[in-house]
Write a structure and sequence with these properties.
Layout (H helix, E strand, L loop, with lengths): L1 H36 L5 H33 L29 H23 L4 H10 L6 H16 L3 H24 L7 H9 L3 H41 L7 H7 L2 H9 L2 H9 L3 H14 L8 H11 L1
Helix pairs in contact: 1-2, 3-5, 4-7, 5-6, 5-8, 6-8, 10-11
Length: about 325
C-alpha cells in the first residue's frame, strides 16, 4: 500500500515538473519566433526549441495517461487508514533528457559568442539583482539564461569592472555568477536540465544552514580573488603592449629608440640635448675618443635625436675615413 501511494505521488510530481518545463520551453519558443520576425538569425535555436516543446508535450501526455490509470486502480482499493492518509513530504526528479554529445572547443566558443551577443542585456540585468526572489523570478521568465554561457559571461563582466576599478559592481556580479554556478552544479549532481532545478536551489539557499552558506561565501571569495588576479594580469599585459606601441612610434630613421639612446649617452652629451645647445654638444663629442664619439653621433642620428643638415653626415663620414 505504501509503495502504491508513493507511485501516485511520484506521478503527480513528475507531471507538474513536466508542465513547468513545457511552459518555460513554450515561452522560449515564442520569444525566438518574435526575434525571427524582427530579422534575427535564430533558425538553429528555433528548431531546437520546437523539438524540446514537442518532446515535453509527449512526456506530459504519457504522465497524464499513467496518472489516469493509477486513478482507476486506486478506485478499486478498499478504504482504510492507508488509503486515506499520505506522507507529508515526497520528492522525485524527472530526467527526460538524454545525455548530450560532448561539444568541441570550437563549438563551445562559437556557441558562447552567439549566446552572449544575443542575450548580453538580459545577462547583465540578472547580474545586478540582489534578492533571491528577484533572481528566481527573472530566471523563471528567462529560463534560457540558466546555462554555462551565462556563468562564463558574468565572470567576464566581473573582470571588466575590476579593470575599470568598479569594485562594488564586480562583487555584485560575482555573487550572481556563483548563484548560476551552484545551479549548474546542482543540475549535474541530479543529472537533470538546469532549467528544471534552479527553483530547488533558491528554495535551499533561502533556508540553508550555516555550513551551506559558508560554502557559498567561500566559493564567492575564491572567484573574486581569481577575478582580481586575472584583471591585474590583463592590465599588465595591456601596459606592455602600450609601451611597445609607443616605442615603435618613437623609433628614428635608423630603427633606434631615442629614449634608450639618450639614456646611454655620456652626461655632458645628455646635458647638451637638454639645453638644446649645439656648441656644447660638439665640445662634448670632441672630448671623447674619435671612435666613441662617432658611435654616439651615429646612434643619435639613427634614433632621430640629431638631425644633420643635408650632406653633413656624409662629410662627417669622409672626415672620419681620412682620420
Amino acid at each position: 500500500m505504501a509503495e502504491f501511494q508513493q507511485r501516485g505521488e511520484d506521478l503527480e510530481h513528475n507531471l507538474a515538473e513536466c508542465r513547468t518545463l513545457l511552459k518555460e520551453a513554450q515561452g522560449w519558443l515564442k520569444k525566438l519566433e518574435e526575434e525571427r520576425q524582427e530579422g534575427e538569425e535564430t533558425e538553429a535555436e528555433l528548431k531546437k526549441a520546437k523539438a524540446e516543446v514537442k518532446k515535453l508535450k509527449k512526456d506530459e501526455k504519457k504522465f497524464e495517461e499513467m496518472l489516469e490509470e493509477y486513478g482507476r486502480e486506486k478506485k478499486k482499493l478498499p478504504w482504510n487508514v492507508d488509503t486515506l492518509s499520505k506522507e507529508g513530504f515526497s520528492k522525485s526528479v524527472l530526467n527526460a533528457k538524454s545525455v548530450p554529445r560532448e561539444e568541441t572547443e570550437e563549438e563551445k566558443v562559437a556557441k558562447h559568442k552567439t549566446f552572449v551577443e544575443k542575450y548580453a542585456k538580459e545577462i547583465k540585468h540578472f547580474g545586478m539583482l540582489h534578492r533571491w526572489d528577484d533572481s528566481q523570478k527573472y530566471l523563471s521568465d528567462n529560463p534560457h539564461l540558466v546555462c554555462e554561457e551565462t556563468a562564463n559571461c558574468l565572470v567576464v563582466i566581473c573582470i571588466d569592472y575590476e579593470i575599470d576599478e568598479k569594485h562594488a559592481l564586480m562583487e555584485q556580479i560575482a555573487h550572481q555568477a556563483i548563484v548560476m554556478q551552484f545551479i549548474l552544479d546542482l543540475a549535474q549532481t541530479l543529472k537533470v536540465d538546469p532549467r528544471g532545478c534552479f527553483r530547488d536551489f533558491f528554495s535551499k539557499i533561502k533556508t540553508a544552514d550555516k555550513q551551506y552558506l559558508d560554502m557559498f561565501d567561500h566559493e564567492l571569495e575564491l572567484l573574486k580573488e581569481r577575478v582580481r588576479s586575472c584583471a591585474q594580469s590583463r592590465m599588465e599585459s595591456a601596459m606592455k603592449e602600450l609601451e611597445e606601441e609607443e616605442r615603435q612610434k618613437r623609433l628614428g630613421p635608423g630603427g633606434l629608440d631615442p629614449v634608450e639612446v639618450y639614456e646611454s649617452l655620456p652626461k655632458e652629451m645628455q646635458k647638451s640635448f637638454d639645453e638644446k645647445n649645439i656648441q656644447t654638444l660638439q665640445e662634448a663629442i670632441s672630448k671623447l675618443d674619435p671612435l666613441e664619439g662617432k658611435y654616439h653621433l651615429l646612434r643619435c642620428i639613427d634614433s632621430g635625436l640629431w638631425v644633420p643638415e643635408s650632406g653633413e653626415a656624409d662629410d662627417d663620414d669622409d672626415a672620419d675615413d681620412e682620420d
